[in-house]
Amino acid sequence: MTIAPAVANRPYRLARKRTRQAVLVWCFLAPSLAVFLLYRILPLLWNVVLSFTAWSPLRPMRWAGLDQYEEMLHDDVFWHSLWNTLIFIASAPVGIVIALGLALLVSSDIRGRDVYRTIIFISYPLMTVAVAIIWRWLFDERVGLINYIARSLDLVDRPIQFLNSFVWALPSVIVANIWQMLGFYMIILLTGLQNIPPNLYEAAAIDGANAPRRFWRVTLPLLKPSLFLCFVIGMLNSFTSFDLVYVMTGGGPGRATELLVTYIYKLGFSQTRFDYAASVTIVFFVLLVGITWAANRLSGGNAGAVEKD
Amino acid sequence: MSADEVELPLWRRLLINRFVLVPATIAVAIALWNGYVATHDHGIVVGRVVDAAGLPVPDAAVVLWVLNFTTYVEKTRATTDSAGRFVITNNDSHNIRLAAEKPGVGRSARVPVRLYFRAQDIELNEPLILSGAS
Amino acid sequence: MYRYPRWPIHLALVGVSLLMLIPFYWVLKTSVTGENIFAYPPSILPKSPHPFYYVDVWYYIPFARYFLNSVVVSAIAVIANVVFNAMAGYALTRDFPAKPFVLLLFLSCMMVPFQATIIPAYLITGRLGLLDSYWGLALPQFSTIVCIFVFKASFDAVPRSLIDAARIDGLSEWRIIWRVMMPLAKGAIATNVILAFIWSWNNFLWPLIVTRSADMQTLPLGLARFLSYQEDTTGALYAFCIMVLAPGILLFLLAQNEFIRGLTSGATKG
């Protein structure tokens, strides 16, 4: 922008140029800003307003103060889904640890590592609804593959009704979720592993560090950013894991697999309780921001976030 | 790798790559299949009716059922000619059942027939076998 | 470098690969035989496979219609997404007074998951009169912050001297964008196309909320509806499942490296 022809009314030209630039910048930003204002900021504010009012499409809006939140305190389903969501989040590290093992294996210089990488990754970009149907089928109590294997190995004498049991339903959904996310964690950790300078290993080897020591002293500390990124992604994924739960169990049996997301959906669109759903959403959002913030603080930096709609 | 790619003219680089070739192959396959379907969907079902000894049965009544959601409903009837052959021309389903019957000779089992598309023209290899004279 | 036997690694990886692939195999097998819905013990290899469950699905449901809906919605979302994100990413490489504010706004928007906005988003879409329409289905995905930052990073990497040289040559702003910036942002475009495609193609929650009529259902929605009508009683469900998965798997295998690079850069750039 410093290259302007030397002319008599240069300041005027420059000013006009700057205006044109500003117009251009704002024109370029406008569509994205509009979308975000319409579908991120406005909904957030609307949620806040809704959560303090009593409203449904058929009733006029009325100030309700903290009534919704008070109801939430006594709502067993809410506490149950909150607890389930936290369990779901707590399962993310399990997947990350498995993925770390896989990443270490795949990053070794064996033949066919790209094939392994592709196979392990393939479940991630696939449609979650279809993945949920596949896992429903594997968990089927009569003829599902998992029950078949368990019975063949004499692990159980009667088939387990995985998705219809209060004990097993949530772990089953979590297994399916980890299965789908595994490849993604692995790829992120692989990228992290590749960014570790090899001479660090050589130096450690010269110092006489054996393989486990090298792993604990070199790999793990340098992989910390990638691990935290995985955790943040896994947490977001667990928080927003609607498709899997909705298709696999629908939140059932009873409320055994109800998550906050599915509860919000049901409140809003099956019970048309938009106001109460909005206040649950606010709690959901505050919790999410809180955990992300805590994760960022713990990682000592910007671990970032990813959206997966 | 770049040395070769620069040599190629633009249209070849744009057209001859896997993102064009694979969808194009699929499109051609779909077009061929649709062409086949369009020329073979007259709803003609041809078959034979024989008795327990394997001899052709003339004047047997053949019934065609078609799948309607979950149940089979009777669609049409035909009678066999002197060679035991029958021709049904108005089948419009992809999931049909056929059975034949002739008083004095017996009746056949209901034979399920699955077609690859609706109203596919088909000639049954296996004849309908009448048995159990009543 | 270090000597160690390779076969345990292969063994472990083959085991994991089987764990990843067997579910697909199991569903594929059921879709061509339907046998283990009724039979126990299930057989490992398919017995007398036939394609008729696929034929059944084709006539049970308007598969072509669902497919078309998915394609149209994804196409709208991807095109709008790439164009808008590229524009916003380009704007963010410039200096302007409110830039810190805009950056802060974008970063805070990133903290709002779509699932936390469904109730008002539904009401807003209703006010706009876009419920049950292609535009309503695609609109929330018209721009994604992650991709804006991917574009910004790739535009920032364009050497300043190149742009200045182009400007001396008298190229207009638009021509600079088209002739200089865009060719250098190919990677960002590929990333954005893939991310936007995956998000809209696989999206289930939003179509579930917004669509009313059977004609507007997308593939994931059609699949879930089919499950709720048919339960697990027919091989047709699994045939449908395979038909829905096949385009995604094909695309992934075609553009594998772009997929992996796109998904990871989408995650790490954020």
Explain what this protein looks like in three dimensions.
The complex is a heterotrimer of chains A (309), B (134) and C (270). Chain A has 309 residues and is mostly helical. Chain A has helices at 10-51, 67-73, 76-90, 92-107, 113-121, 128-138, 145-152, 169-194, 198-206, 211-239, 242-248, 260-269, 274-299; strands at residues 53-56, 59-63. Chain A folds into two domains: 10-51; 69-299, MetI-like fold. Helices cover 70% and strands 3% of the residues of chain A. Chain A has a two-stranded antiparallel sheet with strand order 1-2. In chain A, a hairpin with a 2-residue loop joins strand 1 (53-56) and strand 2. Mean pLDDT of chain A is 83; it is low at 302-309. Chain B is an alpha+beta fold and 134 residues long. Chain B folds into two domains: 2-39; 45-129, Carboxypeptidase-like, regulatory domain (Immunoglobulin-like, Sandwich). In chain B, 25% of the residues lie in helices and 34% in strands. Chain B has three helices and nine strands. In chain B, the strands form two sheets. In chain B, strands 2, 3, 5, 6 and 7 form a five-stranded antiparallel beta sheet that branches. In chain B, strands 1, 4, 8 and 9 form a four-stranded mixed beta sheet that branches. In chain B, strand 2 (61-68) and strand 3 (71-79) form a beta hairpin. Chain B is elongated and about 80 Å long. The mean pLDDT of chain B is 83. Chain C has one domain (50-159, 186-269): MetI-like fold (Orthogonal Bundle), CATH 1.10.3720. Chain C is built from 15 helices and no strands. Chain C has helices at 7-33, 35-38, 52-60, 63-92, 99-110, 118-127, 134-138, 145-156, 160-168, 173-184, 186-202, 205-210, 219-230, 235-254, 256-269. In chain C, helix 8 (145-156) crosses helix 15 (256-269) and helix 9 runs antiparallel to helix 10. The relative contact order of chain C is 0.14.
